[in-house]
Amino acid sequence: MDHPIESTSTQIEPCSTQQDAAKNNTLQVDFTWRKGKAYISALSSPADPLYIVHYQAWKCPHIIVKSATSDATIGSGTLQAVSINAKIQVHGRKGTLKALKRWKTAYTHLSYALADNPDSPVAMTWASSSGFKTWDFVCLDEQQMPVAKFSANWWSLKKIGNIEFLGPRAASTALREEIVVTGLTLLYCMLLRTNSLLSFFGAIFARPGPIEKGTAGETQPERGQEHVTDAGPNSPQESFDRKALP
Predict the structure, then answer these.
(1) What is the per-residue pLDDT across 15-51, written as a single tens digit (0 to 9) for each?
(2) What is the spatial distance between Cα 84 and Cα 81, in angstroms, rounded to a whole number?
């Protein structure tokens, strides 16, 4: 005899598993006005922050990401008054978040978290799409497959947004920390560009294009700040609608 109730329960279980995996692979960024900091935590555990973002409007670096448990510096981002590029540093390794277009949100940075060879980083591309409520920044790998999506809220004063990690490396700690630093730097770089006349002239005289590997802007990590190893099992790749990209 068939048991429809048991059959229904079997069909619902995978959906619940996918929802749990999505929460584990998503970080939420919340700003606290009283302390002037942002706290980053897993969507599945909002009460336990993983990272703390410190803001320095009048001195460099302008954004500092630290571990919430050890207070160790994960990375930083530095905006520039005129240039539409930004400087990033992840675990002591300096790099550049470089514009690919003058008048379009398209950026690139060299990733060591996804590199098979630590001496040969891979180029990552950032694209964006915006709606009435959110401004989405999507990070793509060399095969133009999405590895992360940063959905920033237009109107919220506290909830800055969510960072969702996609693909088989979604659980990689090294990748997550690299995306957190570069994603936040890109967000505030674009906010500066949309509100600064100097950035407008910086875009006019900019030389957009890919980063040449081995340039002076990319340096090795300092001693004691070696690359963070991956942690956690691989998660299934999430689907992504490429048609939403500009």
Answers:
(1) 555 555 666 789 999 998 778 899 999 988 888 899 9
(2) 8
Phi, psi angle pair for 125, to nearest 5°:
-120, 135
Residue 178 phi, psi (nearest 5): -65, -40
* Residues 156, 28 contacting (CB under 8 angstroms): no
Over residues 165-191, mean pLDDT: 93
Lowest mean pLDDT across 12-21, 60-69, 161-170, 197-206: 12-21
- pLDDT above 70 covers a percentage of the chain that reads 77
CA nearest to 94, candidates 82, 86, 106: 86
User: What is the 8-class DSSP label of residue 114?
Assistant: S
What's the N-to-C CA distance of the chain in angstroms? 54
Longest CA pairwise span in the chain (Å): 75
Q: Is 117 exposed, middle or buried (0-12, 13-18, 19+ CB in 10 A)?
A: exposed
Query: pTM for this structure?
Result: 0.78
Residue 218 confidence (pLDDT): 56
H/E stretch holding 52 reads strand 49-55
Per-residue pLDDT, averaged over 228-245, amounts to 38
What is the H or E stretch that residue 197 is in? helix 197-204
